[in-house]
């Protein structure tokens, strides 16, 4: 048998968590059924960080829609203080498709008209 490979030197950049093999990756199944997780909607509303195109408007959206129906999850990179591997914060493909359709139907035409902040 061939000898076992020697361990990587401690300062080898390929030996850290960011460079693991794809074969050791775990599939993440998103469970968030909304376009934006409720926790993010609440936080953004509290911080007055809901953009104009996400605010419910009776002239644009169906009657009864709330901020939870119109907010879209923001893009974020994983960081020490913000983990992306929480299923409740990840949308499954069918929700991503619904979000894309929503943006095409309700957001893009308003944005082209200059309605943005």
Overall description:
With 117 residues, the protein is mainly α. The protein is 28% helix and 0% strand. It has three helices and no strands. The mean pLDDT is 82.
Main sheet attributes: strand count, strand direction, barrel closure: none
- Per DSSP, what share of the residues sits in E-state strands of 2 or more residues? under 5%
Could you tell me how far the N terminus lies from the C terminus, measured between alpha carbons in angstroms? Answer: 66 Å
Q: Secondary-structure element order, as H and E?
A: HHH
Poorly predicted runs of 5 or more residues: none
What helical percentage do the residues reach? 25-40%
Chain-wise SSE layout:
Blueprint: H1 38-46, H2 67-70, H3 93-112
Structure described in brief:
The protein is built from 3 helices and no strands.
